[in-house]
Every structure is written in structure tokens, then in C-alpha cells.
Specification:
Oligomer: single chain
Strand order of the largest sheet: 3-2-6-11-8-9
Largest sheet: 6 strands, antiparallel
Structural class: alpha+beta
Radius of gyration: 47 Å
Distance between the termini: 93 Å
CATH class of the domain at 493-648: Mainly Beta
Shape: elongated
CATH topology of the domain at 493-648: Jelly Rolls
Number of helices: 19
Strand content: 5-15%
CATH superfamily of the domain at 493-648: Galactose-binding domain-like
Number of strands: 12
């Protein structure tokens, strides 16, 4: 191609007066331009301007390309002169063609590029006077470049409009990077360095967000409106997530610098709290800014479907930062609550101290929960699911449970073992008792409300983990009917020999009926263990009878007795097994009706089996037995009834649990709640 360009140039010079000479020479310049042979471009276009300056359709292109060629050869001053000539020439044309508009816009844009490049080359030093001069120079060049890029937009040529707007955004970004890269004074104190870095971060944010990001977003909006998706719109779209992410990271760098300088001392107790709060006050503004900028990244990325690496990094970083803020406040709460209580305090003073302490740390608890919730809600909005989100959910549950449990424990102490001050006056003691009762009620209500709030947050998927279960169990222990889950449970009830059977030596009318008054009847007073055999369901079978005068003497054995027992079934039995062992003859009545045994099962045996399924009724039922002895030494009966009923019961089932917990496992005194230092039901553990 270079040989072709040289041939065209040579032919144009040989036949300079030919009517085809301008076309041939211009073609040579175009080929040199494609080859980026800027020296040749400059030579050819200068000749073209000198020989054919009256060619209105090509002179602007020639002047423009000549200026670009000079710029490419680092002759910026002369390049601007040539480019300005192209612009002036264009202004004199009454009806310029689209080609002339294109190259004039290119000339204006190139002038902007030259000033832009000059601005980038101005480095900022750490010396005060030099810094001010350099910053002024840099700012002036920024304004010159901005003016040129802005003029390009007025040509209303889409290919130059999107390029110019994108370049304005890049201009502000480069200016900010120049500030960021300025020299640092190595002899500055930490406070001076931190102040400088903060000023730089703020300046970068202003240029990145208020300026650069604004223009890039406008470019993307223009592309959407005009259905333009050229490389400059695409470049601007990428900047929508890049700029806010980088600005946020600058603030997080300040957080790390501050944390390192404040982590050198190892302190305990209230000194540690003071140091933590001091650090928190320093880094909190930086963290808030970082969160705000990461949110900006996520918002723009979501709005314009720019889900790239910077978007994903911002998603990860924002939850970590927000969680860290909540964790810092949570640590303050733990440090304060675990601080040793003065040894000299008596039980009353210890109680008052803990009461005041809970009030004092409330603000930090609220701040912790607020930031943990903020983490979760941000994650919810942008579909983030990382470890920081999971940890935030468990921390909220833990923080709130510990708060509620502290009030719960103080309430129990106030009711069960109030730590009265050292007084002996009965009236004063009574007054303190009333106060402790009032405090106990208040603290109990507070604890229950906190536990309930945890379950409410659980229903919104804002908390999870073992502390949700602890909260639920404590509520179930206090309010089983309100927090238990109804379940049909098969319950087996067994009735055999015991002293609740009533007996009489006389038979009265209707003695087998449910309504018969048996209050004057005797209680069974003779019960004797007896091995009946392997086939009897009650391995610890007991014979029962009634003896006159509470004597074991055979002379007083009653030969004939009438027995009654009332049994209540809230629900109809689903399975029934009734067997009878007797040392004598007997008749069995169920609800006043004589009931015969299963004859097949009873053949050749003193053990009788009955089929009673469907014969019991819901509610109260009467078992009645008329029994006689074989002789004075062989007597006694042993009834055994086993009933399985389906009973609706309220059972404990924590949120998210796949199955019920047994009632025994959640019983007060069996279920173990986490220990909280300084808040134990055992006073010895509070020291």
C-alpha cells in the first residue's frame, strides 16, 4: 500500500495542472493515513492545502488530517493551529456537506484530545506551592479539553456525539486519577496522612460520581433512546459499575489504614470499649460512604443490565462492610456485658448494676441490629447470598436472644429469690418485695416481647440458627397453648389395680350406672403382687380386695364384693385391650351393661379377654365388677385396661424444624439455654 501511496503522490506532482491531480493527491494522503505514516500525511495535506485550497469539499479534510498528523508527530502546538484552520474554514462555508461536518467535528475532538493529553502529563507534587500551581495548570487544561469535547456534541453527528460524551467522562476520570497519584510526603504524621487520603478520596468521588459517571450514564441513556450501541456507548456502560466501585474501594482503604493503627494496643473492659468506640467513630463515615457507593454500583448495574466483575465485587464487598459495622457494635455489647462486676457489691447492688447495664447497652444493640438488617435487606434487593448475609441473620438472633434472656433471668431472680438490701424492718421488706414483683413482671414482659420479635423476624427470613430455637422453646415453656403446634398424638392410657377403685359389700340398685353415688363406698385396702404368667400384659400385676377392719386375717375376708371405677376419655379410643384375672367368679359391666368375655380366648383359663372396641363412649365411662371368692384363702381380682386414643396436643416445633421436639426435652429444667456471663441464675456464676 505504501508503494501505491507514493505512486499517487508522484503522479499528482508530475501532472499538478491536470484536473485529476487533486483527486490523486488526496488519495495518496488517505492511504498514508491508513498506514499511519503521519509524516507523509502531513506533507501531502500541506501540499493539498497550498495547491488546492479552493476545493471546498476536501480542504477541511486535508487541514484536519494535517493537524492530526502533526499531533501524531508530537508537534501539538502546530497541530492545534492546523486544526483551528479547519474549523475556521468550515465556519465560512454557507452550506457545508456532511463530510465537512464530520472532519470539522474530528478536528475539534482532536484539539480536545491534545489538551486532555497535556492535562494527564501534569503530575502533582507534595510541595504546597508547587502543588497549587500544578493543580491550577491541570484544571485549566481540563476546562480547555472539556470545551472542545462539548463543541463536538453540537454537530449532532451520532458517531461523534457518543464518542465525545464518553471522552468527557474519561476526562474527569483521568483528572481524578491524577489527584490520586499525587506525591505523598513521607515525613507526614499519621493524622496528616489520613487527612490527605480522605481529601483525595473525596476529590476522586466527586470527579468519578458527580462528573464522570454522570456523563457516562447520559451516554448510555442516549444510546437507548436513539438505538445506538457503538463501542463508545458500550464503554460508557462499563464505566457505570467501574467508577462507583473504585470510589468505594478508596474509602475502604481508609478503613483498613485506621484499623491497623488502632489495633496495636491490647486493652480490657471499659478501656477496650472506649478504644473500640473511638475507632468506630473514625471509620464509620468511611464505611457509610463505601456502602453508599457500592449501592450506587449495584443500582446502576441492575438498571442497565451491566452485571460484570465490578458489580459482583461490589455485591460481595457491600455485605462484608455492612456486616462488619454491625459486628463492631455487637462486640461493644459483649465487652460491656462481660465486664467484671466489682467484687465488693452485695447481691442487691449486683442486681441494680445489671439492670442499669442492660439499659446502657441498648443503643449499641439497636445499632448492631440495624446494620445487620441493612445487610440482609441489601442482599434481598440484589439477590446476594454470601456468608456475610448468613452471619447477619444468626447474629441478629443471638443478639436479641441474649438481650431477652438477660431480662428473663433478672425477672426469675426478682420473683424467686429477690436480693433484698441489708434491712430488717418488715414494712421496708414488704415494700421491696412489691418493687421486685413489679420489676419481675416488667422484665418478664420485655423478655417475652423480644423472643416474639425473633420469631417475627424468622417468619420474614431475617434470622436463623440455634438462637431462634432457644427463643421459641422459652416462649413454649411459658405459653404452650399459644406457641405449640396442634398434632394428633396416639396416647396410651393403662388402668389396673390401684386404690382409686371403689368397693362395697352390698349391692344397691343401679350400682353399675355412671350416675350412681359411690362416695360412701370403700377404697380398696388389700393389694398384693402376684406373678400371673407370661401372657398377661401387666408384668407387675396386683390382686385387689377389701378386708374388714383393715386386717389380713382370713376370718374377715368378704366373700362377695362390688367394684366401681370411673374413667374419662376426652376422645373415643382407637384401640382397646381389656383383660381380667380372677381368683373366683365375677361379672363385668360396662356403663351399666353386662359384658361377656371373648369365649374363645377364655377357654380353660382364669384369664378373660374382652372385645370392647366401639363400646366406650366419649367422656365418662363406668367399669363395674361383681366378684366372689373361691374360698377363704383364694380371692382377689386384677383388671387391666389399655386404651390408645388420638389426642390433639400442642407440641413444640421451632420455626423451620422438620419435626416436633418432645415435651420432655423442652421441659423447664431439662432444656439447656446458653450461658451468659454475669447473667446466671446461680449467683456464684455471676462473680
Amino acid at each position: 500500500m505504501k508503494e501505491s501511496a507514493a505512486t499517487f503522490e508522484k503522479m499528482a506532482y508530475l501532472y499538478i495542472d491536470s484536473p485529476d491531480a487533486p483527486d490523486v493527491l488526496f488519495k495518496a494522503g488517505e492511504i498514508y493515513g491508513l498506514l499511519k505514516d503521519w509524516e507523509s500525511v502531513s506533507r501531502v495535506n500541506q501540499t493539498f492545502a497550498r495547491k488546492f485550497g479552493n476545493d471546498a469539499d476536501r480542504i477541511i479534510q486535508a487541514l484536519c488530517m494535517n493537524g492530526i498528523a502533526l499531533y501524531m508527530q508530537n508537534n501539538e502546538s502546530e497541530a492545534i493551529v492546523q486544526l483551528e484552520k479547519a474549523i475556521v474554514t468550515f465556519s465560512k462555508i454557507k452550506d457545508p456537506s456532511t463530510v465537512n461536518m464530520f472532519y470539522t467535528a474530528r478536528a475539534v475532538f482532536t484539539i480536545g484530545e491534545i489538551y486532555h493529553s497535556q492535562m494527564d502529563r501534569v503530575a502533582l507534587s507534595s510541595q504546597g506551592n508547587n502543588y497549587k500551581k500544578q493543580l491550577t495548570q491541570k484544571s485549566e487544561l481540563l476546562n480547555k479539553a472539556l470545551s472542545s469535547y462539548t463543541r463536538v456534541i453540537k454537530f449532532n453527528l451520532s458517531e461523534w456525539t457518543t464518542r465525545a460524551i464518553s471522552q468527557i467522562g474519561q476526562l474527569y476520570e483521568d483528572f481524578a486519577l491524577g489527584i490520586f497519584k499525587q506525591q505523598r510526603n513521607p515525613s507526614s504524621t499519621f493524622e496528616q496522612q489520613l487527612a490527605l487520603e480522605l481529601g483525595i478520596a473525596q476529590a476522586v468521588e466527586q470527579m468519578f460520581i458527580d462528573k464522570a459517571l454522570y456523563y457516562h450514564e447520559q451516554n448510555v441513556k442516549l444510546g437507548i433512546k436513539e438505538n445506538i450501541n457503538d463501542k463508545y456507548v458500550q464503554l460508557s456502560k462499563k464505566k457505570l459499575t467501574y467508577l462507583p466501585y473504585i470510589a468505594a474501594e478508596n474509602y475502604l482503604s481508609l478503613v483498613e489504614i485506621t484499623k491497623k493503627t488502632t489495633a496495636s494496643q491490647s486493652l480490657e473492659g471499659f478501656a477496650s470499649i472506649a478504644k473500640t468506640l473511638q475507632t468506630l467513630q473514625k471509620i464509620a463515615p468511611f464505611q457509610e460512604k463505601a456502602i453508599e457507593l457500592h449501592l450506587k454500583c449495584l443500582e446502576l448495574g441492575s438498571t442497565y443490565q451491566q452485571i460484570d466483575d465490578f458489580y459482583n465485587k461490589a455485591a460481595s464487598s457491600i455485605t462484608k462492610t455492612s456486616f462488619y459495622v454491625g459486628e463492631t457494635y455487637s462486640n461493644v455489647v459483649t465487652i460491656a456485658r462481660n465486664a467484671p462486676i466489682p467484687e465488693k457489691f452485695n447481691p442487691y447492688e449486683r442486681f441494680v448494676y445489671r439492670t442499669k447495664l442492660l439499659k446502657q447497652i441498648e443503643g449499641y444493640e439497636d445499632q448492631a441490629v440495624t446494620n445487620f438488617l441493612k445487610t440482609i435487606k441489601i442482599a434481598e434487593a440484589y439477590k446476594i447470598n454470601d456468608q456475610s448475609v448468613t452471619d447477619s441473620k444468626t447474629r441478629i438472633a443471638q443478639l436479641l436472644f441474649n438481650k431477652g434472656r438477660c431480662y428473663d433471668i433478672l425477672s426469675i431472680i426478682a420473683f424467686s429469690s429477690p436480693p433484698y438490701p441489708d434491712i430488717t424492718d418488715h414494712a421496708q421488706m414488704q415494700e421491696y418485695k412489691e418493687q421486685f414483683d413489679e420489676i419481675g413482671s416488667k422484665f418478664k414482659n420485655q423478655a417475652m416481647e423480644i423472643y416474639k420479635s425473633i420469631l417475627n423476624l424468622s417468619s420474614q427470613n431475617y434470622v436463623l440458627g440455634e438462637y431462634v430455637t432457644h427463643s421459641y422453646v422459652r416462649l413454649f415453656q411459658i405459653f404452650p397453648e399459644d406457641f405449640g403446634v396442634s398434632s394428633d398424638v396416639k396416647v396410651e392410657s393403662m388402668f389396673s389395680t390401684d386404690s382409686t377403685w371403689r368397693c362395697s359389700i352390698d349391692s344397691l340398685a343401679l350400682w353399675t350406672d355412671i350416675d350412681f353415688p359411690d362416695s360412701a363406698w370403700h377404697s380398696v385396702n388389700w393389694i398384693k403382687p402376684l406373678k400371673i404368667g407370661k401372657n398377661y400384659p401387666d408384668s407387675n400385676a396386683l390382686l385387689m380386695w377389701y378386708l374388714d377392719k383393715n386386717s389380713d386375717s382370713l376370718k374377715t375376708v368378704n366373700k362377695r364384693l362390688f367394684f366401681r371405677k370411673i374413667i374419662n376419655f376426652p376422645e373415643l379410643p382407637q384401640q382397646v385391650s381389656f383383660q381380667m384375672y380372677s381368683r373366683g367368679k365375677y361379672s363385668f359391666y360396662l356403663n351399666g351393661v353386662f359384658t361377656a368375655p371373648d369365649s374363645i380366648a377364655n377357654k380353660g383359663s382364669d384369664k378373660s379377654r374382652y372385645d370392647l372396641l366401639g363400646k366406650f363412649r366419649k367422656g365418662y365411662n363406668t367399669l363395674a365388677i361383681e366378684a366372689t371368692t373361691f374360698n377363704d384363702s383364694t380371692f382377689g381380682i386384677c383388671p387391666f385396661l389399655s386404651v390408645i386414643s388420638a389426642r390433639s396436643m400442642k407440641l413444640p416445633k421451632p420455626p423451620g424444624a422438620a419435626s416436633f421436639i418432645s415435651l420432655e426435652d423442652v421441659r423447664d429444667g431439662v432444656y439447656v439455654f446458653p450461658e451468659i456471663f454475669n447473667f446466671s441464675l446461680t449467683e456464684g456464676k455471676n462473680k
